[in-house]
Amino acid sequence: MDRYNKIINKNEREIVLLKSFPCVWGKCAFCDYIDDNSKDEEAVNKLNMEVLKNITGEYGVIEVINSGSCFEIPKTSLEKIRDIIKEKNIKLLFLESHWCYRNRLQEMRDFFNVPIIFKVGIESFDYNFRNNILNKNAKFKTVEEVKEYFQSVCLMVGIKGQTKELIDLDMKLLEENFKYGTVNVWTENTTKFKRDEEIIKWFKEKYSYLDKHETIEVLYNNTDFGVGD
Ligand code: SF4
User: Fold this and answer.
1) Contacts made by residues 38-47, CB under 8 angstroms, sequence distance 24+
2) What is the pLDDT of residues 69-118, one digit of tens each?
């Protein structure tokens, strides 16, 4: 599995996909990548150290993701990231967190002492789709609640059952309220969720202008960041 990449087409940065302890929630209905989680702290740290060696700091920006939230990355790995931030003069860090950690984000800011853009996987602003269908367990009601904590949201597009109206509303709320965002076009995995090819075709055409957007990224394949498998 590729765990390091440079993103150069826009919002330039280096990205690493680290291993971590099990995702605190672990029950999103569409997720099968928690298989990457492990309780073997030593092995997790060993692998993460190798991955982190790749970081050059050339863009001054790094993104650290894992199959879960940054709070599940072992302390030794987090300390190594902090060392790299100092050594390589990193000015901006992107981290991911589940909604349930929203009141703990300051802990990471204090730990790293560098500006952090926190991304949250909400998949949709629609409460029913997010919680009752995708089982995301992110039970906010308004976009304002999300903005209070997070600077970037990850949305999901192209799952059978999603409507164009629902996607349009999600995209509108993203563009109007957040500087940063990641839109994942659904790639089928081992879960029951299927791709809606017709909606994906429509989405690609209607939102092709986002290809030029500086800070909103559309991933047409779940490996478009060059990490994962
Ligand atoms: S929070 Fe992320 S890693 Fe955890 S189950 Fe949901 S999608 Fe998977």
Assistant:
1) 41/74, 41/76, 43/19, 44/18, 44/19, 44/20, 44/74, 44/77, 45/74, 45/76, 45/77, 47/3, 47/18, 47/19
2) 999 999 999 999 999 999 999 999 999 999 999 999 999 999 999 999 99
**Spatial CA neighbour of 61 closest among 7, 132, 22:** 7
Pocket flag, ligand 1, residue 120 (CB < 6 Å)? no
Cβ-based neighbour number of residue 147 at 10 Å: 13
> Is 224 in contact with 211 (CB distance < 8 Å)?
no
Residue pLDDT, tens place only, 21-69: 999 999 999 999 888 999 999 999 999 999 999 999 999 999 999 999 9
Probe target for ligand 1 pocket from 23, 100, 182, 222, with the most ligand atoms within 8 Å of CB = 23
Output the CA torsion sign for 110, 113, 115, 118.
Answer: negative
Record the tokens describing residue 149, joined without a space.
């904590």
Q: Are residues 127 and 170 in contact, defined by beta-carbon separation less than 8 angstroms?
A: no
Please check whether the domain covering 4-219 is classified as CATH 1.10.10.10: no
- For the chain, how big is the Rg over CA atoms in Å? 17
Residue boundaries of the structural domains of the chain? 4-219
Task: Kindly give the residue spans of alpha helices, DSSP state H, lying in the chain.
Answer: 41-52, 75-87, 105-112, 127, 143-149, 164-177, 197-206
Q: How far apart are the C-alpha atoms of 131 and 91, rounded to whole Å? A: 35
Residue identifier of the C-alpha nearest atom 8 of ligand 1: 31
